[in-house]
Amino acid sequence: MKKNYIVGVMWLLFSIITQAQILNNNLDVIDSDIINEKGKNYIREGLLSEVLDREKGISGSEQHIESFYGEGNTDGGNNFSGFNSSTKGIVIGTTSLLKKSDKTPQRKYITGVSLGYLESKIKYKNPDQSDKMKTMGGNIYFAVLNDRNVAFTHLGYSHSTAKDGVGRQDRNNLSVGTELGRVYPLNKNTFIYPYISLEYCGSFREKDSKKNYWYEKESINIGRGNIGFYYVYDKNKVRLSLNTKYTGEISNGMDKNIYSWNSIENLGTQKKDNEYITSSLSLGYYLSKDMLLSLEVTGRYSKRSENTIYGLKIAHIF
């Protein structure tokens, strides 16, 4: 009887080990992207002011504050658990037109900053467990508008802390990129801005214990190519904007060798979001000549995951 009991316990432990799924997520990269992408749109809106010579504001400076909430769903596979997520946060940003040169009046320089704080909740599908994540980050931007040609670059950093009932993992994200495009006014109230860009994103994660698995210190390097367009209609008290882009990624990351019960196992490779579409639609109303209130919805969709964010933004145009 005792022997059968021991055999039964050993079989149960073996079943748990062989069926256990790795609980991991890329929400730190997505949250960092949210801060960065909103800052890029602030720069693009600053370009709008200059190209359309809008009669709003006098200094070429704009301030933005945006609050948002979103939900996401990610499929699992190859021993990795899928998960659902919810995110709330706030992003603030500013853009400024630098003094124009008398020698090259057609050339203008715009600088910008975006800062953000996000909180996310993650609920894994198998097993039924949860994590929490907090992300703080910032980005700086520098853009050149020469006639209607645009070039701008950005540099960003964010820090995320992932926690569950067992452990904690610190994640640091670094991003840098360059965007090139050209502004095409369709009329005095409307323009379209097609662009291409290249980016690097690095996610550096500290070693941590998590759900009975010991994660090694790791770095994930992601190269991105983007092609997209930004459309804006701005007349009287209404502004409508649409930004859509396709992203292709090359990544060395998400292969997992994990220490489990004092033994080393290769438990599979997490599926990656190598290609995805990001699209945002914003509808704004001018409360006054220099104050814009906007509602915005943003979606990020791939074969593996989908994320949707709803935001409310106030912009002050000096």
List the helices and strands and how they pair.
Elements: H1 2-19, H2 27-51, E1 61-74, E2 83-97, E3 107-124, E4 130-146, E5 149-163, E6 168-182, E7 184-187, E8 190-205, E9 208-210, E10 213-215, E11 218-235, E12 238-251, E13 255-260, E14 263-269, E15 275-288, E16 291-302, E17 305-317
Antiparallel strand pairs: 1-2, 1-17, 2-3, 3-4, 4-5, 5-6, 6-8, 7-8, 8-11, 9-10, 10-13, 11-12, 12-15, 13-14, 15-16, 16-17
Give a verbal description of the structure.
This protein is mainly beta and 318 residues long. 14% of the residues lie in helices and 64% in strands. The protein has two helices and 17 strands. The protein has helices at 2-19, 27-51; strands at 61-74, 83-97, 107-124, 130-146, 149-163, 168-182, 184-187, 190-205, 208-210, 213-215, 218-235, 238-251, 255-260, 263-269, 275-288, 291-302, 305-317. The strands form two sheets. Strands 1-2-3-4-5-6-8-11-12-15-16-17 form a twelve-stranded antiparallel barrel. It has a four-stranded antiparallel sheet with strand order 9-10-13-14, with no helix packed on it. A hairpin with a 2-residue loop joins strand 16 (291-302) and strand 17. It is globular, with a radius of gyration of 23 Å.
